[in-house]
Design goal:
This protein is of the alpha+beta class. The chain has six helices and eight strands, in the order H-E-E-H-E-E-E-H-H-H-H-E-E-E. About 20% of the residues lie in helices and about 30% in strands. A hairpin with a 3-residue loop joins strand 3 and strand 4.
């Protein structure tokens, strides 16, 4: 039975609210006719033009235009010359905001994820999608193919489902890997989950 896909209305809220609400939801990628899926266990909020660490801080550009559009779309960027990172846009159109998906607990298609990561098919599941770069590699997500996709539609090949799971406890801490506004407590994770990135 198909699980409900998170609707656009889910993403109309501020990034910190959406980041918390995404924990426990299931990210699904349709890849070569099969489902690759994982439970979102870690996410970071980026608060648009009010957040010096956000890509939208300097205003709208060709690179970050997705963030200023309608909520519920994939914003994918390339970092360190080697990794893609997947974000989901939030806030009403014209007001930029997004949530960076940092880690998944793999649920479906683990062997395919391992192959995409260049690992043995029986690799430790924690090596598959713990960290934003690993997550994108495990799901075959790239800017060229996924930036701007509508994540609120099952037809897009990339969406988020709700299977009713509710985290018992959410851990809140500063974001990692940034220099500006690094002290803000905008990193959210399912407390004690072993798939949260290091």
């Amino acid at each position: 039975m198909a699980l409900p896909v998170l609707p656009r209305a889910f993403y109309f809220h501020p990034p910190d609210v959406v980041a918390r609400a995404l924990l426990g939801k299931v990210l699904v990628r349709r890849y070569e006719g099969r489902r690759l899926a994982g439970r979102i266990v870690e996410a970071e909020a980026y608060c648009g033009v009010d957040d010096p660490a956000a890509h939208a801080f300097a205003g709208k550009t060709a690179r970050n235009a997705v963030l200023f559009g309608a909520p519920g779309f994939a914003y994918v960027y390339f970092i360190y010359g080697m990794h893609y990172c997947l974000n989901l846009s939030c806030e009403p159109e014209g007001k930029a905001g997004c949530v960076l998906l940092r880690a998944l607990k793999p649920l479906e298609g683990l062997a395919a994820m391992a192959r995409l990561r260049g690992l043995a098919t029986d690799a430790d599941p924690r090596l598959l999608a713990s960290g934003p770069g690993r997550l994108c590699q495990a799901l075959g997500i790239a800017r060229e193919t996924h930036n701007g996709l509508e994540a609120t539609s099952r037809r897009s090949g990339l969406h988020v489902e709700d299977d009713g799971f509710v985290p018992k406890e959410i851990a809140v801490s500063p974001r990692v890997g940034i220099r500006r506004a690094a002290e803000r407590p905008l990193r959210f994770a399912i407390a004690g989950n072993r798939f949260v990135s290091g």
